[in-house]
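User: Can you fold this complex?
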Amino acid sequence: MTIDKTTPLANALQDKQRTIKCVIWDLDHTLWNGVLLEDEQVMPRSEILTIIKTLDSRGILQSIASKNAYEPAIQKLKEWEIMEYFLYPQINWQPKSTSISTIARALNISIDTLAFIDDQPFEREEVAFNHPDILCLDVTNIATMLDKPEMQPRFITEDSSRRRQMYMSDIKRNESEQEFQGPAEKFLASLNMIFTISIAQESDLRRAEELTLRTHQLNTTGYTYSYDELNAIRQSKRYKLYISSLDDRYGTYGKIGLTLIECTPEVWTIKLLLMSCRVLSRGVGTIMVNYIMQQAKKAGVRLQAEFVETKSNRMMYITYKFGGFKEIQRNGNNVLMEDDLSHIQSFPDYIKIIDHSMPCD
Amino acid sequence: MADIHTKTRDFINHFFPNVTIQDDQDIFTMGFINSLFAMQLVMFVESEFGITVENEDLDINNFKSINAIASLVERKAGNAA
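Assistant: Here's the predicted assembly.
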């Protein structure tokens, strides 16, 4: 079996209907019946709590853009025990398009992956005018919302169902990072990070496919693989497919890394090495490269890596080059590199590495 | 061009605050060099000294010490002039 660069799947998915990553709710007459400032006893719409919980279980994030007084509105959400579902809620008197920009920036996702729900045509038009790519929905159609194709992720992984909690942990981490005085390494040490490397199991493949599609910046080749291709790769003796995860004292980052190596008796070739950009500032890409260098040295093979240069993946090029890789062949943006394995860094003290993979053959 | 040495030492000291770095000292043996530090070092050299680090310049030998970085900068700046 040979698995070469495959693009048809990625193209098919781009043509497909978009997927919403975050739903932004209005409050008065939308999340609840009535106007809070006129009636303190407002009640949530009957179907709304189910919808909020269902979206959450699908890995779709949620936030709020409401013109309201902040404290009383938050009190209501806490009273109904749904406050925790909303990230970066914007409850103020600004135009809603401004609130939506703030949310998109905070979550680091693009406007075309957002949906906005409001009962007032004026608000929907103001938002649509300033953000033509957003999906605006009228709350009167709320009953069928969950059935919309945009609200159905291609698949739901363990990582997607806990996405909100991972964002919550990120908020706490970022706060402590901003408050931290001192060198970056000291901050990394304060996180008590654990990096776990495993051979991908069948249960990891949906997440693995998702990573190949969603990751661009920390991605050495951008090759995409479908679930079926990955399943064939996983069972083939010719390939090693590693999946890695990261945890720290704030919780888990989930499965954040994928590495595919093609193994021949003399040469191992890293076809793909990617890390979610959520761990960009954690330095784990270098750790994974070092791990493979160690494994290759142990197996007594030469180590090569394919690289496809893009506008956004220079960091991975630098990771390889500073790891000691040298270009041995180049055809436009397609590069083949080799490392002579003469200098391999040992792992840093500030992170614990757990190797769950099988011994190399 | 002592300036390049001083600025580069200040930058590196930010990451290794408790050591005195000699001009010829190999910084790649001082601690774990992760991809983030590597990226920041390259971006620092580009923005601080106004040069473009090409793929072929991205070699540990050009970045392993303050002297190495200074001679890379001088070479690139000389080429541009």
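The first helix of chain A runs from residue 8 to 15. The first strand of chain A starts at residue 22 and ends at 25.
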